[in-house]
Specification:
By secondary structure, this protein is mostly helical. It contains 16 helices and no strands. Helix 2 crosses helix 4 and helix 14 crosses helix 15.
């Protein structure tokens, strides 16, 4: 029998109604094309340069077809998307933002099963997530496709989506590895150990990344969002959710996504000790934190959402007036 991967506790798959689809599309377009106080998103210029290069020299996308390693690390799907933008849009920036709209729509499609529109509209307006969609669009698109796995009712469709992700951003091979680890835990009935496994795995990842990339030379002033003060602010919301995960979860939150949330959050929380730009990892799973928070008991839910909102206001103040 064609069974899905062990990502959801129930054999029930959710599809948005027409009104929700329309609202998600309007929200995504407004979110991406809003000028955001004239802020310039650093990575966009690199994307636009790549688009121009692909239009002028499309052969650079092919590379060495005989090299399996180059093929696996080539991000061919991403390059093809950029080439389509360069081919069909006269204004490359407007065309590129379409990819951000798709990424945000995927996130919203995933979140709408678990969250009311009020929570989605309020808390996704967080600078860390705004930067993710508008600047780190490549990783946002890849991860948003990964989230849609839970909407596919058979394992072949799920595997297809999973395997597409690293061809958009090669770092998504880490996700494939984590899915494999979770699958092993599920098979041997060790799901109750997913929290310590995620934490140990994340700390190991930080150490290996630190040793392999010589991050000791990174200028910390470049990454204020990965400072010890900034990461410590998120410790309480993340900790409360981790502590209460094994209580009755009325949201039927997929355990695989909880495992991913704890892994990426741990990478982020300990990133200052490894001089790692950890906020980019946390930004990807920030919507998962919102989903988990909504499943907390009512009193805890209010406390955590209040903390997140206060943090959001502080971030906006720093973001606008720094």
């Amino acid at each position: 029998m064609d069974k899905p991967l062990p990502i959801s506790n129930k054999k029930k798959y959710y599809f948005l109604g027409k009104v929700d689809v329309l609202l998600a599309l309007i929200f995504s377009i407004a979110f991406v094309y809003y000028p955001w106080f004239g802020k310039e998103f650093e990575d966009v210029i690199n994307y636009l340069t790549r688009i121009n290069d692909l239009v002028k020299y499309p052969e650079i996308m092919n590379g060495n077809k005989s090299s399996i390693q180059e093929l696996l690390l080539s991000e061919r799907v991403w390059d093809q998307l950029l080439l389509l933008v360069g081919t069909y849009f006269q204004d490359k920036l407007i065309g590129f933002k379409v990819l951000g709209v798709i990424a945000l729509f995927n996130y919203t499609y995933f979140l709408r099963k678990y969250l009311p529109w009020g929570i989605i509209l309020l808390f996704l307006l967080n600078p860390i997530f705004i930067d993710l969609i508008n600047s780190q669009t490549r990783s946002a698109l890849a991860f948003s496709i990964f989230l849609l796995i839970s909407r596919v009712p058979n394992k072949y469709g799920q595997l297809a989506l999973l395997l597409v992700c690293p061809f958009i951003h090669f770092s998504m091979y880490l996700l494939i590895f984590l899915v494999g680890v979770f699958w092993v835990l599920h098979k041997i009935n060790w799901e109750k150990y997913i929290i310590p496994t995620a934490i140990i795995g994340a700390l190991s990842f930080n150490l290996v990344y630190f040793l392999a990339t010589n991050t000791s030379v990174i200028d910390k002033t470049m990454y204020q969002s990965s400072s010890l003060l900034y990461t410590s602010i998120w410790l309480i919301p993340i900790g409360i959710n981790a502590k209460n995960y094994h209580s009755k979860n009325t949201l039927d939150f997929p355990p695989l996504y909880f495992f991913i949330l704890i892994f990426y959050s741990t990478v982020f929380l300990f990133s200052p000790f490894f001089n790692l730009y950890g906020s980019r990892f946390f930004a990807l799973v920030f919507p998962l934190l919102l989903t988990m928070t909504y499943g907390l008991p009512k009193n805890l839910r209010k406390v955590v959402f209040t903390l997140i909102f206060i943090n959001q206001i502080i971030q906006f103040y720093y973001w606008i007036f720094k």
